[in-house]
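Summary for the funding panel

The consortium committed to producing paired sequence-structure records for every protein in the target list. Below we show the first two records in order, beginning with the earlier of the two.
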Amino acid sequence: MNLQRTLLIAILAAAAFAVALTISNAAETARTDHVTARLVSEARTVEAGSTITVGIHKVIKPRWHTYWGNPGDAGMATSIAWTLPQGAKAGEILWPAPKRIMIGPVANYGYEDEVTLLTKIKLPENLRAGDTVPVKAVVDWLVCEEICIPEQVTLELSLPVVAKGMATGISIREIESARTKLPIENAWPFTANAKDGKIELLATSEDISPAKFRSAHFFASDWGVVTHAADQPHRIKNGELTLTLSPYEPTLPQTLRGVLVLDDAKGSKQTAYAVSANITGALGTRSSIAVPDIGFVTALVFAFLGGFILNLMPCVFPVLSIKVLSLLNHARMGYRQRHIHGLAYTAGVLACFGVFAAIVLAFKAGGAELGWGFQFQSPLFVLFLAYLMFAVGLGQSGLIAFGSSLSRLGAYGGNDGYGMSFLAGGLAAVVATPCTAPFMGAALGFAVSQPALMLLAIFFALGLGLALPYLLLCYWPALLRFLPKPGAWMERLKQALAFPMYATAIWLVWVLAQQAGANAVAAALGGMLLIAFGAWIFASSGKSWRAANYTLSVASLAAAVLLGVYFVNGAPAQAAGANARYEAYTPLRLAELRAQNRPVFVNLTAAWCITCLVNERVALDRANVISAFEAANVAYLKGDWTHRDPAITQMLANFGRNGVPLYVFYPAGTNAQPVVLPQILTPEIVLREIGQPKTARVEN
């Protein structure tokens, strides 16, 4: 865990070094490293009670871009905080039509080169001739190329006040140009119909014909309505334009709002039309949640990297350490034997991932969905894995001879040794599933939406990444030179590695308590007692009593299994409730809170997810984070996926995920887009997100 936190701190430090937040002194023009911004006004002088138009004109560095009101898959819209005289009021930003900017599989909505964001300001009636009107704007934006940098400037100008009827204006090129790019209101009648998993947007007008327009693209004003990166097949014929849109979520708003941008037949001019159409119909049972397609090759790479990083997780590291110790202890083994052990371990990992993939495919064929770590939603599986970890720990401690087969997961020598390497690989794969590593979420989210062969390939890539460190050590033993020489310390370390096994068993019993209650915990502890007793009887068998001792030992193991099945399998599931800090997540409750215009933080977690538990302890349960939630009136919803929950599975799919953790922050405001936080949290990440401005605000 120290390694994870160190890596995270290093990443954040690098990001802080790259992010040069620029704050300029107040002036009409300000420059950052990537944008030159200017506050422009079409009014030279103003009069009391008038409405003026001002603009924030940005000249953007080549190949960089800033964002529209809906930034698309990633990014942040420009926000403006106005400081105006008492009684003056600034309207909302008038956004020129954006362009779609593709960065790999990610679709952003924004602006390149230059853009002017217009705002209308209503002046108060109590202004007097001879006064001046100070107009001040603090402008925040995110500017991106391969990296994204938040920048801020402060712009200010003063406008003289003259008598009624004496105000003068001037034609400002930037403002006039921006007006031509604003969407035309109420130009055409639009209708929207949902059916067969798609949304059809239809426009009718005598002006529509292939001779006038050759292409069209719709930009939704609200985040999460359509899939930003999806294709939009369209048909243009005389008097009618039809676009087919891919919905992002299964629940659609009542009204489809956005901007329709059409290219003329020559491709030299674009015209934008404001769209507002009530959605009729329903998506139907054939609809599926559309997520950005990262591509098969990218998914393979992400899966491989995620599997490799899993070796650093507390679930897997003890098993890998046992195998590495065995390599050190048998450094003189022949190349052929060492290679076979590496392949056997890898085969065990891949076989286990193959079984996981087959189960996922079987459930998909039956119309159900499974996510990463699905087997931990079964109390019986959790119980038997706790038994296994306990038995391995006893063997590593050298306390009992029974279970030596389990304790010899790192053993070499003969075909039996190969079998132990295979079992060690399978065990590593099984205990890896409560953990989620970076890159895994996107890869697994992509995998479950693909055909069987592609899903299998991605699961196998994940397994290969998990097996890679041990496989490399088996094929390139020179790497072992970086480790200490064999000696007595190895036996002590082997015994020490028993304690992570015991800790894992304790944690699994705690998970069992969340799933099946106190009786299940008593059954698990009683089963462990029977396992220890049976192992002791087995180890102390003498020649005269061997048959009787073996029988008693087997009976003890059978009793442990039956005890668990009786008390655990029939136990009622424990419902995920709420406490004073959070409420249980449901889609209905989320919708209610958003309708109340409250910011909402959603935490999708599970008792068996180690990454989730660490994040809660390190970040979400910190006093300063709790206080910040209360101060900002943030509603905290917690979705417990310890048991299968279709509503949580659906929300994971909505964000292209196949497993927990998932952290989503919904800022206040009906037009504010949700923000997905990283899978590894710090208090700083959470605090920055809930305090980050998402929409334009007015300060008087």
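The next record, for a separate protein in the list, is shown here:
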Amino acid sequence: MNETTTSEVKQFDPLDMRNYRIEKLPKRQKSNIEKWLATAGIPLSILAFIIVGFFIHLPFLDGILYDDLVSESARKAFTKIGNDAFARSNHLMLAIFLAGIILWITEAIPNYLTSLILIISLVLTGVLSEKEAYAQLGHPVMWLNIMSFVLASMLVTTGVAKRFALWFILRFGKNAGSIFISFIVINTILSAFISATTAKAAILLPIFMVIAAIYGARGSEGKNNFGRSIVLQNLLNINLGAGAFVTGSGANLLAAALIGGAIGQTIFFADWMAAMFPIMVGLMFIGYILAMKVYFPLSKEERMPQIEGGMERLQMEYKKLGKLSFQEIKSVVIFVLILGFWATDKLHGISATAVAFVGAIVALLPRIGVVKWNDVDIPWHLMLFSAGAYTLGSGFAVTDLPSISVNAFFDHLGIKDETPFWLIYVLLTGVMTFSALLFQSKTMRTMIFVPIAIGVAGRFGYEIVSLALPVAFMIEHVYVLPFNSKPAALLYETDQYSYSDAFKYGITMMIISWFLIILAGQTWFKFLGITPLGVF
């Protein structure tokens, strides 16, 4: 038994990126609090569903009028089924949403199973038709993620990713600080081209996991501050980098399309980048300082490579790779072409999903391609998790529950049409920012809160861009809890950090980000003409 264990340990090569395939990530041990939440999650979710769905009748949901509705889907449903049935659908939608939130937060059952339960619940309660509910698995962003995972697997299988990681650590790994700053640069560059944060996470995960192993981070009982910092900073930077560009994620593109449609103008790449690039890069460096100086300071030992043989071993491993193979060259060419087509979509009009489709097909072609299907590393549990989130978004669109709730909230507080712009600005950006703690999909949050911002701007007589665009700028702050986004769920499985590590670091960055967007609204956004002069 001991001999077998020793042999298995010896066979583990921290420089072999195949050890960091998604399905090989270690199973995390839950803390006592997490175990308690998991035990309570199922009964609490059932109780919430029954009480809200069948015993509580909220007045603002019972008295819905056609003119109160914003969503066209909701207006069609209202006309088709009538006031009473529409109110019943809203109560059931709210009940399903609350039950799902409880299951996702407590992790009483796997997230993908919660998503499957949500989908069938929306069907059985009649909130959504089967066609609408099941169709979300075919959402274009879902296919973009799947094809991007094929491309990421291509880089790992051919050895390009390992070659880059070794070159990277030899070039920039003279000290720990330079490694973290280099990842800021890499994340920013990739974000301009890759419209899928999950794909970026899949591409970068093997690289920073190898580097973490080199610096002594082993996960589970072998956690150290280097491992915590490199994974959590990359999670932060993957999302902040996406927020710097309108092409950074599908949710950004959706937000720009919604706002552009409302104002009759296009939200251009340059407009978004001018507003958010300096803010997001600044936040990345703030995150670096907080991690290195406050939350995860490195000991003297953690600042130097701890792998046997040190940098000499890495140099030897790099030399073993020899010259670039033909397969590696092909994978680099395919990947660069994909990035090029993604970056020039305005010129050719081909969607990012279609481009990824073609790239993945070429990569998988027999004799021509560079990767086999069995070598492709696709986290299907995350895909199902996403399908549930998108289905919830469809449910919200059909019931118009978010805008109905917001209008009721404003009316309850007695907020009048002459309310100062700054108060509405602070409220809407804050709701968008902190909604990431509860919602599991950026696309869903975009479909809910950007139309709300557009509607609120119209209600109070302000320019749509002045409220809707700053709200859209807060889409990518989804790094606090593991269920807040697919990259967060993926990187949590590395077992390099705890729930509390992610929360204390992430919530601090989220609060700082909100205050920074408020400050920008009074300064930088005024200069760019986004927010009106003389309002604050």
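Regarding this second record: Residues 1-10 have pLDDT under 50 and may be disordered. The first helix runs from residue 2 to 11.
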